[in-house]
Amino acid sequence: MADKPTKGLADVVAASTALSDIDGKAGLLFYRGYDIHDLAGRTTFEETAHLLQHGTLPNRDQLAEYGAELVRGRALGSLVEQNVVEIAEKQEPMEALRTLLSLTSADDPDKDSNAADANLRKAARLTALQPILVARFHAARRGVEAPEPDPDKSIAANFLRQITGKEPTPREVEIFDECLVLHADHTMNASTFAARVCAATLSDMHSAVVAAIGTLKGPLHGGANEQVMRTLETLDPTGVADAVRAKLAGGEKIMGFGHRVYKTEDPRATHLRRMSEELGEASGDDTYYRMSKEMEEVVFAEKGLYPNVDFYAATVYHFLGIPTDLFTPVFSVSRMAGWTAHVIEQHADNRLIRPDSEYIGARDQKWVHIDER
Ligand SMILES: CC(=O)SCCNC(=O)CCNC(=O)[C@H](O)C(C)(C)COP(=O)(O)OP(=O)(O)OC[C@H]1O[C@@H](n2cnc3c(N)ncnc32)[C@H](O)[C@@H]1OP(=O)(O)O
Ligand SMILES: O=C([O-])CC(=O)C(=O)O
Predict the structure, then answer these.
(1) Which atom of ligand 1 is nearest to the CA of 7?
(2) What is the extent of the structural domain holding 137?
């Protein structure tokens, strides 16, 4: 008989990875050995994606080459072009992205190969495509044309302009770029695990990231950032503490708090809190930032829980002018760098991922004819 399962696979080591590492007690996160505090605010998202996918922080030539690959990778393909309007009418953002991303494989010249070089090319294309898909979806649902991305600008700069319709300030671009860096990878989180399970059957990278998008969507994972904003929007700014206490007393989970691995401050939340404060002040109305701080204090006092990456990301995105229902899609724009790197790593040293289960159902049942049941 199998061993007793660990519910939710807590503390089970499911894969070896050289991509990222977490110390949950100390609140540390590393991408390929670099402390997230060193990378955040100093390294661009493009450099971070290169670090994850290629293994090194790029020099200037490598970054120029990778940047050109990202620009070439933005072509959406015929199936997306033909279907995006109807999809945008009928599907919610994360549903739509799951569909749209899947459609892009049709035109991918490397779709039939899991070889290392093909995977690297696909990783760059998918990283380039995801922000464009979000922008095209958002434009299509509003019945407008998405502004063309500028080949000389970063993913962060193009995305903000495409989504908000305004030219972002250099500081807004810096902040958003830092958000993308902070969300790029996170060991064996649920969506990355889903991607690796799919890849380990020797299925292709597009299939693996579709599984990941579907997994990120849930409110216990990436979907929490949208729920944080929905909570803030429904709270009375003068009654935050009482409302949060009442929710907790009623057994409700407060979205954006708690973490499977971190038992102290999530190092990404430290940066996001600071960015939320800065943007709140700059906006002239920092109510949501102040409400968030109050929520943080109450949840800690009542439950000893810390905010996770999704908590302050919500107000940062809000202050940047991103619509609330695009918060989780934004997460996917960043995490695409990590998912694709994990698929590369899985394919490079593969074994089918197939855990065991503990059977808890009935035994010794006797079949009876349908007329006698
Ligand atoms: C990018 C990310 O995915 S970050 C996580 C995003 N998700 C969220 O913010 C959703 C809210 N948080 C949660 O649901 C959880 O903290 C998770 C899913 C992140 C981690 O879950 P787990 O490690 O399985 O912890 P679990 O859900 O079992 O919680 C342990 C205890 O803390 C409580 N708890 C955990 N998170 C919260 C919360 N946000 N609000 C209130 N109570 C909570 C649970 O109710 C449980 O209490 P109990 O032992 O009295 O039943
Ligand atoms: O690691 C996790 O379980 C969730 C998380 O914070 C992430 O995916 O960034």
Answers:
(1) 24
(2) 20-218+324-348
